[in-house]
Amino acid sequence: MREELRADERFVRTLRGEETDRMPVIENSIWWDETIHRWEKEGLSVTKNYAYDMRDVIALQEHFGLDLLAHWWTKPYTEKTPIPSVFGAGMGAADMESYEKVLLPTLYPEMRMSEDFLAMIRRRKGEGNLILELIINGPFWEPREYMGIEPHLYAFYDQPELYDRMVDDMKRWQKRTVEYALNTLPFDYITVAEDMSYNNGPMLGKELFDRFIAPYYREMVPFLKKSGLPVLVDSDGNIGEAIGWYNEVGIDGYHPLEAQAGCDVNDLSARYPTTAFIGNFNKRIMSDGEAALRREFERLLPCIRRGRYIVSVDHQTPPSVSAEEYRLYSSLLREYARKKD
C-alpha cells in the first residue's frame, strides 16, 4: 500500500505524471453562489455567510470529503474602477485617451492578502491538507474586461497600439504582485485565466494569437516558472485547437475542459501526452442518478490511470444539482480516485 501523501504533493505529482497514492479529489472551479444558496435552503448548514469567501469554500470542501483547494486571484481593480453591471459591457476604454485618463488611474493597486486569509492558509498548509492556486488574468481576458466583448475583438485590427499598451501595463503590475504572492505563501500552481474559446473553438486565429497573445507568455512563463510551479491556462469552451498554441509558449496544462463544448480528455491526452488536464466531468449529467455518474467516471478512468489528469466538474457545479446529488458525486469521485491501478 502506498504511503499517504500530502494533498499539495499529491496534486503536483499528478500534474507531472509522477507516482501517487491516488488521484486528488477536488472541485477545481468553486461552486456558483446560486448552487450554495440552493444547498442552504435544503438544510446544508456548514457555511457561515462570509460572502462565500475561502472560509465557506473550505467548509464545503470538508463537508463533502474533498481535498482542500484554495486560491488567491490577483485582480487589478480598485473601488474606483468602473466595474460594469452588465456582463461583457466593458469599463469604458474605447481608445488610448479614455484608457489613460479615465480607466488606468483606477487600476493596479498594491494587492495584499488579509491577515485572516494568511493565518487560515498557513494553518491548513501546516496540516498538510491544502492545495493553493495563484490566479492571474491573461492577455486575452483582461483587455476584454476593459473594452467590452465586441470592441475587444475589433481592437486586434483597429487598435493594436492600445492593445499592446494594456497588456504591457498589466504585465508590469503582475510581476510585482506575483513576486509578493510567491514570497508570502507556498503556492502549488499558477493559473492564467483566459476564457479564449467558445463552443466551436478559439475566438481568434493563430496569426492574431502569435501577434498579440504569445509575446506575453514568452515573457511571463519563464518569469512564473522561476518558482518551479506548474503554469496552467483556464479557458472555457473548446480549447482543443488552442492547446497546441499555448504549449508552444510553455504552458503545462489546462482546465476545465467543458464536455458540452466538445472537449474529451481521452482525445486531448492522446494528442498531447505530456500535458496536464483538470476537469471534463460533464456537469449536465450530475442529476441523472448513480448509473449515469458511473458511466461518466468510466469514460474518464483511462486518463485517471494514465496520470497527468485530475477529474473535476467541467466548470462549476450548477444550481440544478441538489446537495444530495452532489454528495453522491463526491462519494463516487473518492471511489474512482483510488482506481489508479
Broad structural category? alpha/beta
Q: Can you summarize the main beta sheet?
A: 7 strands, parallel
State which percent range the strand residues make up.
5-15%
Low-confidence stretches: none
Quaternary structure state of the chains depicted: single chain
Choose one word for the global shape. globular
Notable characteristics:
341 residues, alpha/beta, seven-stranded parallel sheet, two-stranded antiparallel sheet, 13 helices
Protein architecture, described:
Helix content is 47%, strand content 13%. The chain has 341 residues and is an alpha/beta fold. The strands form two sheets. Strands 1-2-3-6-7-8-9 form a seven-stranded parallel β-sheet. A two-stranded antiparallel ribbon has the order 4-5. Helix 10 links the parallel strand 6 and strand 7. Helix 6 crosses helix 7 and helix 8 packs parallel to helix 9. The protein is globular, with a radius of gyration of 20 Å. The protein starts with 6 loop residues before the first helix and ends with a helix.
Could you give a quick summary of the protein structure above?
By secondary structure, this protein is α/β, with parallel strands linked by helices. The protein has 13 helices and 9 strands.
Give a topology summary.
Blueprint: H1 7-15, H2 33-41, H3 54-63, E1 68-74, H4 96-103, H5 115-127, E2 130-137, H6 141-147, H7 149-158, H8 160-184, E3 189-193, E4 197-198, E5 201-202, H9 206-225, E6 231-235, H10 240-248, E7 253-256, H11 265-271, E8 276-281, H12 290-306, E9 309-313, H13 323-337
